UniProtKB/TrEMBL annotation:
NCBIfam families attached to this UniProt entry: DOC_P1 (TIGR01550)
Highest taxon above the source species: Eukaryota
Gene3D superfamilies: Fic/DOC protein, Fido domain
Fido domain boundaries: 9-129
Protein name per its UniProtKB record: Pc06g00320 protein
Amino acid sequence: MASKTLLFLTAEQIQRLHLRYINKPLPIQLNMLESAIHSPIDMEHYTKEEDVFQLAANLAEKIMRNHAFQDGNKRTALVAADMFLKINGYYLQKVPFAEDKNDKELSNAHVAVVTNQWTAKQLGDYYKSIAVPLGPATTEVTEYIS
């Protein structure tokens, strides 16, 4: 049985997410953002990782740790991981940054990663535990399917 072809985000798409949801200046270190977006691609290619939740967590971790943006790296990592999951059939949040239980727990999970309390693997496991199948893609999601 052939595995599903995974879709990945580009640096330009993550910058659009950053502008839409974070509304802060664009990356100050574009090369660090490029490095972050290539990490899950390399992970899938070289280690044959096919778990979209682990790939999303890898993307989020790299965005947070590479610190490409002056402000909003953890929030950008969250919307990027969520959109990555959406273009691959799942979602973490119906509405990004809605004041609900998931938003606070996702924020805490991202803080746990950057403070070395959690690994990217644990973050991926957490994503998997709360993710919901997407259903029909919304207009916003189809904008990011390249």
